[in-house]
Amino acid sequence: MDDTACTPADLDRLHDAMTEERSRLLERVGDHHRSGPVSGDSADRAELGVETELDVLIETQDRELLRQVDFMLERLESGLYPVCVACGAPVGRARQEAFPRATSCVDCARRPRRS
């Protein structure tokens, strides 16, 4: 278990990284909506159908990442980070560095989720 606390400088760097990630994700999500009209033969349209499905999957993933980044920014700005959302223990510097959007400590992350 890593109980090395995050310093204020660590939290500032994390906030900057999350802000940059948010901007990048907003741009990518916006790009999904700027596609042009469909034209061409049936093979082109079929290929476009596959690309459209992939675009929808990527957009869904990007929106989920954006939700996670927004949640992390809210926690940082309200002073609730680096506290685990499940148990209140410190998230820990090593975990934060390995997974910047982590909102739970290693122990809670390892616990099986209840259905």
Polypeptide structure, described:
The longest helix has 37 residues, at 42-78. Helix 1 (8-32) runs antiparallel to helix 2 (42-78). It contains 4 helices and no strands. By secondary structure, the protein is mostly helical. The radius of gyration is 19 Å and the shape is elongated. The two termini are 26 Å apart. Helices cover 63% and strands 0% of the residues. The chain has helices at residues 8-32, 42-78, 93-98, 106-110. The protein has a single domain, classed as Four Helix Bundle (Hemerythrin (Met), subunit A).
Search tags:
Four Helix Bundle (Hemerythrin (Met), subunit A), mainly alpha
Summarize it.
This is Zinc finger DksA/TraR C4-type domain-containing protein. This protein has 115 residues and is mostly helical.
CATH H-tier superfamily:
DksA, coiled-coil domain
Radius of gyration: 19 Å
Helix content: 55-70%
Low-confidence stretches: none
Shape assignment: elongated
Determine and state the CATH class.
Mainly Alpha
Number of strands: 0
CATH topology: Four Helix Bundle (Hemerythrin (Met), subunit A)
User: How many domain modules?
Assistant: 1
Zinc finger (dksA C4-type): 84-108
Pfam families: zf-dskA_traR (PF01258)
Domain Zinc finger DksA/TraR C4-type: 79-111
Protein name: Zinc finger DksA/TraR C4-type domain-containing protein
Topology diagram in text:
Elements: H1 8-32, H2 42-78, H3 93-98, H4 106-110
Helix pairs in contact: 1-2
